[in-house]
Each structure stands twice: as structure tokens, then as C-alpha cells.
Write a structure and sequence with these properties.
Structural class: alpha+beta
Number of domains: 2
Oligomer: single chain
Radius of gyration: 23 Å
CATH superfamily of the largest domain: PPM-type phosphatase domain
Largest sheet: 6 strands, antiparallel
CATH class of the largest domain: Alpha Beta
Shape: elongated
Number of helices: 11
Distance between the termini: 36 Å
Mean pLDDT: 91
Strand content: 25-35%
Number of strands: 18
Helix content: 25-40%
Strand order of the largest sheet: 2-3-4-5-9-8
């Protein structure tokens, strides 16, 4: 059975007028490729809640990463973190997901809103049993995930989101499920799905959230390789070697740069076909090469891709801009951050004299710097990245 790739993404919004979020998500990966995801929701909001949720998520993920039992992990959290003296209630609620690459999943839930399971684009029921660990009633589920399944965990800021300190009883878990089902056809990454959900909750709160609001989504996906050719080699004698290696790679192929596109088309025995002459938001138009998924301009396009990626891994405020865009930067960002699980970057180190004539600071150093920054951002997005220079 082919291994699954787990696309893990999350988004948080702070309680209104709080600088720190009382929710915390921790992700870890074992040596056996099992992924560990913990979403913790600290009691209340602000600094204390942030400390409690961070400690809870960190303790659980660290111990599970060391293959300690679930009972030992929960007992340690219970013994380490305090129960409130005022109400005698839990220091932090949590959801744990243990995901192995063959699709076996164990989910542990303690007083967070019930996790949703989306399959074939629809929310479905899943089995769970109640167990007692350290005096706490825990929901435990053992699932076998299929390609395309999505697990949706959330803090209690998501259900019943509403304005004016009033619960919105028309915004229930089934309504959240229906909202996400409407986004499934767009084939968004987990991070973008989580962003859409949290943004909708914030809207329902009239943009002043009355609770810390977090969504953490995991999608089970097959591996998808995307190969990017960025610039011609410094030594033209290396052209055929670079192109042979590039096109021998399985997966999708993107060619960035005018000269690079001409060399790739010649190698494939075809031509570069112009699609349009319009510049979209400062991004040069894309072209077409038969046998290549995307052909776009080089440096200007790649700069915008890096800008989108930096935002994506930060506040993710521009996701609609590039997930709906049709320019080269939007399409390349979509390929790399929505579709790819494995990315191979082939970076040519030749300097483009046209940029020098135009007075643009796009020399060898700038190109390599962009490639290194993109590779770093892709790794932060949990992609498997390999960079080759020519």
C-alpha cells in the first residue's frame, strides 16, 4: 500500500484585545514517520491560558514522540499542570491525533469540541469509546484513513461563534461541517481550509472574538512531486544534463524564465506558445509548452511566490488572492503549497543580461537567494525539498 502524506495546517485568532492566544498546536514526527498533532485549549484567555495550552501540547507531543503510552502522557499532564482553585476544572482541554503513513489513526479527545471527519467531501460519523485515564473521561477513536479524508479539530471558540457575548446556536458542529463541505471542491490545503473556517468564525463574532479560536485540519493525501526549473545553467554545456535530470523526475513540471522556457522547449522538440500579453498585478504573462504543466516568467514571478509563501506561513491573509488567481505567481504558489508534497528545485546560476540592461538587481546572488528562501519556506510547510544547482 502506498504511503499517505499528511497535510497538516492550522490557524488561530486571539480573543479580542488579547496579545497571546490561549490555544496552541504542536506537531511532531517520529522516526517511523508517524505524525503527532496536538491541539490544546488553555482555560480562559491571555497569558495564563497561553502558558497552560503550550505546556500541555508540548508535554503530550514530546512524550508521544518518545513512544510513551497515552496513559502515561495524560497522567503526566494531569500531575504537572494545575487545576484551577476557583472552579476546580481542567487546566487545558486537548485533541491528539496519531497518524501512521499507512492510514492508521488514533484520536484522543478531552473536552474539546468533537472532531469532524470528512470523507468524499462529506462529514461522516466515526466510532469512539469512552475511557478513563487519570480520572478523566477521554474519547478514543481508532480509524483507518483513506486518500482524501480530512480530520478537523477545533477549540471551543469555533462552535457557537456569535457577537455580543451571545452564543450563536445556529452555528453548530453540523453547520461547520456544511461550511467545510462547501470548500472541498476547491481542493485547498489544510492551512487554507483552517484559515477559511477561523475567518468565518471571526466574522460571526462581528470581528471581535469572544474566545480564542483555532482550527487544526489534517488531510490524508497521496504523494505528489512538483519539479521546478528556474533559470539556465551557468555553463551552457550543462544544459542537456540539467534538462535530462529535470524531465526524468516523476510528477508535475514547472519552467520559470524566458530563456529557460526556450531551452526546455528545444529539448522537448516543441515550441513556447504565448497565451496572452497581459501583465496581471505586475506579474508577466504565462506561456505554454507541450508536456509542461506551467511555464512562467522567472525572477519577478518567483519573488511574488516567496511573498505569498511568507504570508501563507504567517497570518495567511492573502490566501484568496493566489488560490483564485490565474497569473503565473498564483499558479506556481498553488502548485507548490496546495498540491505538492515533494518539491525538486533545479536552479540555474546563469545571470540574465537583460535584467542588468534594465537596471534590475537580479543577478546570480539574487536568484540563488530566492531559491534558498523558497526552499526554506517549503520545508517549513512540511514539504520534502531537494535543491540542485547548475
Amino acid at each position: 500500500m502506498a504511503k499517505l502524506y499528511y497535510d497538516i495546517g492550522y490557524k488561530s485568532e486571539n480573543h479580542a484585545n488579547e496579545e497571546l492566544c490561549g490555544d496552541h498546536v504542536e506537531v511532531a514526527h517520529r522516526a517511523d514517520e508517524t505524525s503527532i498533532v496536538v491541539l490544546a485549549d488553555g482555560l480562559g484567555s491571555g497569558v495564563k491560558a497561553s502558558i497552560l495550552s503550550t505546556l500541555t501540547a508540548t508535554i503530550l507531543s514530546t512524550m508521544l514522540n518518545a513512544n510513551l503510552s497515552m496513559e502515561d502522557c495524560v497522567d503526566t499532564v494531569a500531575a504537572t499542570l494545575p487545576v484551577t482553585s476557583e472552579h476546580g476544572v481542567a487546566y487545558s482541554t486537548f485533541t491528539i491525533m496519531l497518524l501512521d503513513p499507512q492510514g492508521a489513526a488514533e484520536v484522543i479527545q478531552f473536552e474539546n469540541p468533537p472532531m469532524l471527519l470528512l470523507r468524499d467531501g462529506k462529514s461522516i460519523e466515526y466510532p469512539h469509546t469512552e475511557i478513563n485515564i487519570g480520572g478523566k473521561q477521554i474519547w478514543q477513536s481508532r480509524l483507518h484513513l483513506r486518500k482524501g479524508d480530512a480530520l478537523v479539530a477545533m477549540s471551543d471558540g469555533c462552535p457557537y461563534a456569535g457577537p455580543d457575548n451571545m452564543y450563536n446556536y445556529d452555528w453548530k458542529l453540523e453547520d461547520i461541517a456544511a461550511f467545510l463541505e462547501g470548500l472541498v471542491p476547491r481542493e485547498l490545503s489544510s492551512r487554507n481550509l483552517a484559515s477559511h473556517l477561523v475567518e468565518e468564525c471571526v466574522r460571526l463574532y462581528a470581528y471581535e472574538p469572544k474566545d480564542d479560536t483555532t482550527s487544526c485540519i489534517v488531510q490524508a493525501r497521496p504523494h505528489c512531486a512538483v519539479n521546478v526549473l528556474f533559470g539556465p545553467p551557468a555553463d551552457r554545456n550543462d544544459t542537456n544534463r540539467m534538462l535530462n535530470l529535470f524531465f526524468a523526475k516523476r510528477g508535475k513540471h514547472a519552467v520559470c524564465g524566458g530563456t529557460t522556457a526556450s531551452l526546455a522547449a528545444e529539448f522537448l522538440g516543441t515550441e513556447v506558445e504565448a497565451i496572452g500579453q497581459k501583465i496581471t498585478d505586475g506579474i508577466p504573462p504565462i506561456s505554454r509548452i507541450e508536456g509542461v504543466e506551467l511555464t512562467c516568467e522567472g525572477m519577478i514571478t518567483m519573488q511574488r511566490v516567496v511573498e505569498y509563501a511568507q504570508d501563507y506561513l504567517g497570518q495567511n491573509l492573502r490566501h484568496d488572492e493566489w488560490t483564485r488567481g490565474t497569473d503565473g505567481a498564483s499558479l506556481l504558489t498553488h502548485l507548490l503549497f496546495e498540491e505538492a508534497t515533494d518539491v525538486n528545485l533545479f536552479v540555474g546560476r546563469a545571470e540574465n543580461p537583460a535584467y542588468r540592461e534594465l537596471g534590475l538587481a537580479f543577478g546570480y546572488g539574487a536568484k540563488v537567494g530566492l531559491a534558498k528562501e523558497l526552499a526554506k519556506l517549503l520545508e517549513q510547510a512540511d514539504k520534502h525539498v531537494k535543491v540542485s544547482y547548475f
